[in-house]
Amino acid sequence: MAIGKAVRRVDAIAKVTGRARYTDDYFRPGMLVAKYLRSTIAHGRVKKIDTRRAQRLPGVEAVFTYEDVPPIKFATAGHPYALDPAHQDVQDRLLLTRHVRYWGDEIAVVVAENDLIVQEALELIDVAYEEYSPLVTPEAALAAGAFEIHAGSNNVVGESCYAVGGNIEEALAQADVVLEGRYRTQICQHCHIENHIALAYMDDLEHIVVVSSTQIPHIVRRIVGQALGLPCGRIRVVKPYIGGGFGNKQDVILEPMVAFLTLQLGGRPVKMHLSREEGMIGTRVRHPFTTQMRAGVMQNGTLVALDIDALSNSGAYASHGHAVAGAAGARSRALYPRTAINYHAKTVYTNIPAAGAMRAYGAPQMMFAVDCMIEEAARRIGMDPVEFRLKNVARQGDVDPLTGEGFESCGLAECLQRGKALIQWDAKRAARPRKQTGPVRRGLGVACFSYATGTYPVCLEISGARIILNPDGSVHIQVGATEIGQGSDTIVAQMVAETAGIPLANVHVVSTQDTDVTPFDTGAYASRQAYVTSNAVFRAATALKAKILEHAGRMSGILPAELEITDGRIVRRDDRARKNMPLAAVALDAYYDKQRGGQLTVEVSHKTCSNAPAFGCTFVEIEVDVPLCRVQIKEIYNIHDSGIILNPLLAQGQVQGGVAMGIGAGLYEEMLIDPESGYIYNNNLLDYKVPTIMDVPDIGCAFVETFEPTSGYGNKSLGEPPIIAPPPAIRNALWDATGVKIDELPMTAHTLYKHFMKAGLL
Amino acid sequence: MKRTITCTINGKRKELTVDVRQSLLEVLREQAGLISVKQGCAVGECGACTVLIDNVPIDSCLYLAVWADGRSIRTVEGESRDGKLSRVQQAFVEAGAVQCGICTPGFVMAATAFVEKHRGRKVTRPDIRPGLAGNLCRCTGYDSIITAVQKSLDEGDEP
Ligand code: FES
Ligand code: FES
């Protein structure tokens, strides 16, 4: 049995020995390098561009500008294709643009022999701009008469709303207490350590091969085809190991350009590798939200109403568009399914870097706002914050009030109880003076979240798996689901071992996806893979096992129904000790017997038509140094209901990494943009504060294991959720420690200073 | 301008002709084929390119290849011998300190230098943190990496 074991990653050895190949390790002889010429203004139009001097520089192969690219607008979001045109992504990109929409927009591209020549050539290009005033904030973009960043858009990418649980105004009118708040979250950037990189070449006159650090190879194939006006069968996308993505590689960034370049340059290999400084502005960021909210509560602790209005800033291009704000809204009703909720959201264009998918896709923004409001509600009616949440959060048997889908598994209440015990909530609160006065104060905070597992029913959920029995009795499994560091290859191997009865050591996972041969799957996002892929893998492993037993039956004359595979051997069900034949013998016979058998192989493509909300919470204890405006985390625990935990070691890694990112978002990280010019101040890892090993404490994690029946192995999402609750939990602890309520992120020393001054603490 | 340098890479003497403008990172990857040396920023921020130069962890992206003349360089490729992982590598595997893996070679080298320096000494988790503060990891939250270093220090004295 392999499920539930802390088995080591299948790729761990490749990675600690440095042998794992990433895109940059795919050297090809004669490879050219390409680099964008990026705008030095945030909003305007190129009046004139002169590339002649660059073109003449020895070593330069080609220079292309916005005048040379296909006039095809395409969408970049890594969503499955939607047959319904109303649900298709916004097509607002060209390969290069004349209309500059953010500081760093791509107006030309140089291809040369090496990086030094490319750099020199870029400096030889002369550009004259007609400047427009940059619209950096949503307010500016929505002002009457504002310049349209995309013609015909009114600067609105999308808008949506839903209402559940009855009329919101009536619910608010009935409440004992009505509260109001306004919450702001910042621009974060993924900062995966491997920057975006892609290369392309042609082996013949027809097919373009793209090797890319992507989470979504099959989607990349479609979008490259769309952007170049080519059928997708002419595009082949290869995805090797990738050095982190966190949603930023669930978008198509460099691939259409490298494909275009190799096509223009006679199929020669061309590589683009963004620098950190380019990557931070020229890929995607997290949508900053401003959320206005009203809550209605009863004195007995019932949360009766939440009225939510979110404004999401998509920046210069739509990318994932309004989908992020839409998904964000769904999280509130799964968390508080018995509350009347009115949700309205609007996503707007501005002149900042384009926002896209980032770990937990809108949930951190929304859950921050909701949890801040919940904390206030609990305090206002004088109820313990944990008790208040316990009374109102989702329970087993609740239904999503909008879709009517029941929650088959929900262990959130148990998560809250467990967290309370871990941090010694009651004892610590009892031992502390009611009001702290010294310079250094302690505070406890809690926050909870819900998250989906995949995107159904909004989007298609499809997975594919192929298993081949090798002549030595081992198997190769190939899936369309992509390993991006989260450990999906290992989980897939465990699933096969569990279901087919083959020892884990004999399960080989083909880690690389190659769209020419890999079964179709839309890739790594929405914390979907272990859930969606489980169905395809389960079916494939079950079918392979049946084929093996059938062949063993033919060889032995025993009915297949009387046989079983255990630990890589064929045994009789009724007498496991007797008549036991190694799998290798069956495999060899199937391959090489002159009459019977053949290669035993199974391929399954599976559409998943369910979704399962995962839940959890963060408990944190902090120490605040008031004069220094510094927060130190003393203890932090994330407790998750992600269904059955498939591999505790990997699960712990997902939680700790997510919590660290959550701490970064809570306390340190923000991309800073000049409101006047749209200039970006900190597009590097020195000034944008990704947490270092000094900033992150030891991170505790625990699991409340429920069984999710819609999943092949009882599991639900885990990769993305851990990032959601730490920021509001820290914020609530800060309030607990100082009496100061901070409704914006990040809570840097700068922010704290502002609020402590206002509160008279300094 | 090109210059010829002689250095020891993973225990073997090597003669390399390098462009004086090239970083050690570029030369190790492109000429020596040591793909474990990763580039995350190229300006000394992330530590993904960490190698040991005379047993001291260095960001190879900031170190000119010509400076390596006469020095001894260690990369992760040289740490496992005869198909056996080094103690630090083994500890990274067991502690779950590897996710996407792009920071891993750099971290393994920084950790190796730390472990070699602190062998036989009593070291706590807070002591380990500053020793690895030059390396960023966006996946693990560092917890398991610190555990891996602890494991490598704990398990006997034999390398
Ligand atoms: S690549 Fe050298 S420190 Fe980042
Ligand atoms: S394992 Fe991905 S950056 Fe460290």
How would you portray this structure in words?
The complex is a heterodimer of chains A (762) and B (159). Chain A is of the alpha+beta class and 762 residues long. Chain A has 3 domains: 13-132 and 196-273, Aldehyde Oxidoreductase, domain 3 (Alpha-Beta Complex); 362-452 and 612-759, 2-Layer Sandwich (Aldehyde Oxidoreductase, domain 4); 462-607, Aldehyde oxidase/xanthine dehydrogenase, molybdopterin binding domain (Aldehyde Oxidoreductase, domain 4), CATH 3.30.365. Chain A is built from 19 helices and 27 strands. In chain A, the strands form 6 sheets. Chain A has an 8-stranded mixed sheet, with helices on both faces. A 5-stranded mixed sheet of chain A has the order 7-15-14-13-8, sandwiched between helices. Chain A has a 4-stranded mixed sheet with strand order 16-25-26-27, sandwiched between helices. Chain A is globular, with a radius of gyration of 27 Å. In chain A, 59% of the residues are buried. The model of chain A has no long low-confidence stretch (mean pLDDT 97). Chain B is of the alpha+beta class. Chain B has 2 domains: 2-76, Beta-grasp domain (Ubiquitin-like (UB roll)), CATH 3.10.20; 87-154, Orthogonal Bundle (DNA polymerase, domain 1). In chain B, 31% of the residues lie in helices and 17% in strands. Chain B is built from 5 helices and 5 strands. Chain B has helices at 24-30, 87-95, 104-118, 125-131, 143-154; strands at residues 2-9, 12-19, 50-53, 56-59, 72-74. Chain B has a 5-stranded mixed sheet with strand order 2-1-5-3-4, covered by helices on one side. In chain B, strand 1 (2-9) and strand 2 (12-19) form a beta hairpin. In chain B, helix 2 (87-95) crosses helix 5 (143-154) and helix 3 runs parallel beside helix 5 (143-154). The mean pLDDT of chain B is 96. At the A-B interface, helix 1 and helix 17 of A face helix 2, helix 3, helix 4 and helix 5 of B. The structure holds FE2/S2 (inorganic) cluster (2 copies). One FE2/S2 (inorganic) cluster sits between chains B (99-104, 137-140) and A (193, 244, 485). The site of one FE2/S2 (inorganic) cluster (FES) has 12 residues of chain B, from loops.
